[in-house]
Amino acid sequence: MTENDKILYIGFGFNGEPGLDSLLKQGSFDIVGVVTPRIDDKHQRKLYPEGLPVEKLAQQNGLTIYQTDDNKRIQEIIEEKQPTSVMMCYYTKIIPQSMLEGGPTYFNIHHGCVLPRLRGSSNTEWAVRNGINKITISLFQAVPGLDEGDLYWEPEITITDEETVVDLRRKMNDCLRENLGRVYEHILHPERSPDLDSIVFRREQTEEGATYTCSIRPEDNVIDWTKPAKEIYNLIRSGCDPEVAAVTTFYQGNPLRVWQAKLQKSTKVWEGHIPGKPIARTKEGVEILTGDKENTILLQEVEKNGERKPAKEIITSIRDTLGLSQLELWQMVQKLS
To answer: 244: closest CA among 110, 123, 337, 78?
Structure first.
């Protein structure tokens, strides 16, 4: 009887639960532990106060959970559990050379474009924000550099101009849930599944064509209404998942998170044109002028003070321009002085 591979699983991101689910369903792995974000990670914990989805799945299957993002602690877990490899979906820190030497092999899941393009953070958000409709999930061997290891698997995910980061992540999770377990087993034991030779391979990365992304925070996602409508629309599409940085604007000095919007052709010619100005309130939403005169943004759902509502219920006047003007900023400073 073939002995199962001992796997330490690290699941920090949105694909943590489907990745673990796929390994469990494969049935050929002995998962010796599941590493998840530490308990004081406010960004994720506030969304899942009763436990992250990957933690719930681990508990249901009697797996030991380690809540840490400390490399030293992970090294201690590895020394204790002696896994043959480590599967990361994903991890927030680079694994140093000292951990890679003489220990298990580390593999990681990257999402964005075909590596080496879009190395770094917030990859799904940047892809949608930049209008990229063909996204790649990359399974690669971890090395001390940023997303630089040899590649083994690169399935492509396609979204439309109307789909959002929520749709993209759902499709990626569906792909991982269906395929990761069997792909991972093929990497470790290719003789067991020769039918996968055509999609599982080993390709060395080069530095040619490498590009990078930085992490996105809410302060980076404030809408500039002077930008072209398509650029604003893509920004909104990239930030409508509760797990990512909010896309915001301002109305009457109050921040609004934008959850849903639509790009549309302008039905009128505006010679008196102010980007950010609401020009119509309809059953479907509130139409906003942008930096180009050919297109407008129809705001459909926004959030104010933690409450999500149709945009037309929050933006009740077409006299007030969205965003913060220099005059409003000056008035705020005056109130503080």
So the answer is: 123
Nearest partner of 277 among 247, 315, 240, 237, judged by Cα: 315
Q: How far is it, in rounded angstroms, from Cα 19 to Cα 36?
A: 13
Predicted model pTM: 0.91
| Contact in structure between 169 and 161 (CB atoms under 8 Å) | no
Question: What span, in angstroms and rounded, lies between the C-alpha atoms of 252 and 324?
Answer: 8
**Quick one: how far is CA 229 from the chain centroid?**
23
d(CA 255, CA 112): 30
Neighbouring-strand partners of residue 241: none
The pLDDT score that the predictor gives to residue 326 is 75
Q: Residues near 139 by Cβ (< 8 Å), separated by ≥ 6?
A: 107, 108, 109, 110, 151, 152, 153, 154, 180, 183, 184, 187
The DSSP secondary structure of 246-281, one letter per residue, reads: PPEEEETTEEEEEEEEEEEE-SS--SS--TT-EEEE
Instruction: Look at residue 267 in the predicted model and tell me its pLDDT.
Output: 85
Q: What is the pLDDT of residues 92-143, one digit of tens each?
A: 888 889 898 878 999 999 988 888 888 888 999 999 999 999 999 999 999 8
Q: Residue 42 — very low, low, confident or very high, per pLDDT cuts 50/70/90?
A: low
The mean pLDDT value of the chain amounts to 92
- DSSP run (H or E) holding 117: none
According to DSSP, residue 94 is labeled P
What residue ranges define each of the domains in the chain, with the CATH number in brackets? 5-213 (3.40.50.170), 218-336 (3.10.25.10)
Alpha helices for 101-228 (secondary structure H): 123-129, 165-188
- The Cα 234–Cα 262 span in angstroms is 10
Residue with tokens 């896309």: 247
Q: Which residues of 246-272 are buried (b: 16+ CB within 10 A; e: fewer)?
A: bbbbbbeeebbbbbbbebeebeeeeee
